[in-house]
Amino acid sequence: MRIQPNGVSLLLSALLPSLASASGFDCANINVGDHKYDLSPLKGVHVLNTTAKTPDNVTSTTYRLNICNTLKSSAQYDKYGNCGTNKNICAFVHRAQNDGGGVDSFPFPIVDLEAAGEASKSPELKRLKDIDPETEGLRVKLEGGTYKENSGDKKGKKAGAIIEFQCDHERSGLEGLDTIEDSEAKARRRRAEGEGGGVSSGNSSSSLQIKSAGLSDDDTYILRLDWRTKYACDEYEKEKGDTPSSKSWGFFTWLIIIAFLFIAAYLIFGSWLNYNRYGARGWDLLPHGDTIRDIPYIFQDWLRRVVNTLQGAGSRGGYSAV
Fold first, then answer.
1. Which of 231, 199, 180, 209 is closest to 36 using CA atoms?
2. How distant, in Å, are the alpha carbons of 87, 120, 215 from that of 11?
3. 111: closest CA among 75, 145, 156, 150?
4. What is the rounded distance in angstroms from the CA atom of residue 144 to the CA atom of residue 47?
5. How far is CA 223 from CA 45, 84, 143, in A?
6. Which residues contact 126 (CB under 8 A, 6 or more apart)?
7. pTM
8. What is the number of alpha carbons within 13 Å of residue 80 lying toward its C-beta?
9. Taking the C-alpha atoms of 197, 198, 202 and 206 in order, what is their torsion angle to the nearest 10 degrees?
10. Mind listing the pLDDT tens digit of every residue in the chain (322 residues)?
11. Distance CA 84, CA 5 (A)
12. Maximum distance among all Cα pairs of the chain, rounded to whole angstroms
């Protein structure tokens, strides 16, 4: 069967939405009720590090996340191994025993919107004002990962992430975020120093912070993140469209329209007046018709004067030979 070109376009238009939904999370088009959010400026791989010290060991964990796409090559981290290139958030654990008993390093996925053998996992979206009327932003719950307690844990537990994008008009959301290279250097330095009790989550001035990480009441590993950004503000998309450039363009558009209407009214009224008062016909109907007819000749004379002036300015002055 031969498919016509327009049939191909219709087929593609039908398939593209399903292909887009296969990614699990379209961060550029988030709709919650009557509000729309575009988090695509936060795309890319971002890195967070934590260090926890207990009487038995020191555990350093590096989290890599990409909310708009999969981690791809960033899912490979030195001796930790490969977390899975199709994952969205992965954890890389380095645990050293205080008594020198050994080191255990391993990765595990936290968010996998396309978990093997399962249907596409849609994120849970909720406005923060629906939870707390005093807080503006967006809450996104992602899941599909598998938590491991150690490198020998084959079965694991369910894992996921809850990210609260909090409205902050002064922040883009990228402040204080490290590159992968900077983050690895800091993680190595913390492991070497082995300092601090409890949990440390890196740069306190960063727009992206770890709120908590661990097993919840239902025995699911949950990574909770706070992300301050102007893109989570409820009215940001509307305010973005109301830029000064759009306002100035609207003003000049109305100015042109008003000028056109004024000229049209003047010509119509003048023509009506000449017809009723003088019985004018043809060009004589138009007010200042003689001037309008002479415009081409006036323009030619003006252009000739300009050319003569330029040629005269370029001519050579001085004494002539006798």
1. 231
2. 29, 22, 45
3. 145
4. 20
5. 16, 18, 10
6. 32, 138, 139
7. 0.65
8. 25
9. -130
10. 444 444 434 433 343 333 333 445 789 999 998 899 999 999 999 999 999 999 999 999 999 999 999 999 998 887 788 998 889 999 999 999 988 888 999 999 999 877 655 555 678 999 999 999 999 999 999 999 999 998 888 888 999 999 999 999 999 999 988 777 666 666 666 656 654 444 445 567 899 999 999 999 999 999 999 999 999 998 887 666 555 554 456 778 888 999 999 888 988 888 888 888 878 777 777 787 777 777 888 888 889 888 988 887 655 555 555 4
11. 39
12. 113
Which tokens go with 213? 């990480």
Nearest Cα neighbor of 25 from 142, 168, 146 is 142
How does 233-255 read in b/e, with b if 16+ C-beta sit within 10 Å?
bbebeeeeeeeeeeeeeeeeeee
For residue 192, give every residue at least 6 positions away whose Cβ sits within 8 Å of its Cβ, in sequence order, or none: none
Q: Which two tokens stand for residue 67?
A: 């909310």
Find all residues with CB under 8 Å of 171, minimum gap 6, and list them.
Answer: 207, 228, 229, 230
**Token couple for 150:** 């150690």
What span, in angstroms and rounded, lies between the C-alpha atoms of 172 and 182?
20
Tokens 């992206």 label which residue?
208
**Length in residues, the chain:** 322
Q: Which helix (H) or strand (E) holds 147?
A: strand 137-147
CA–CA gap between residue 139 and residue 122 (Å, rounded): 14
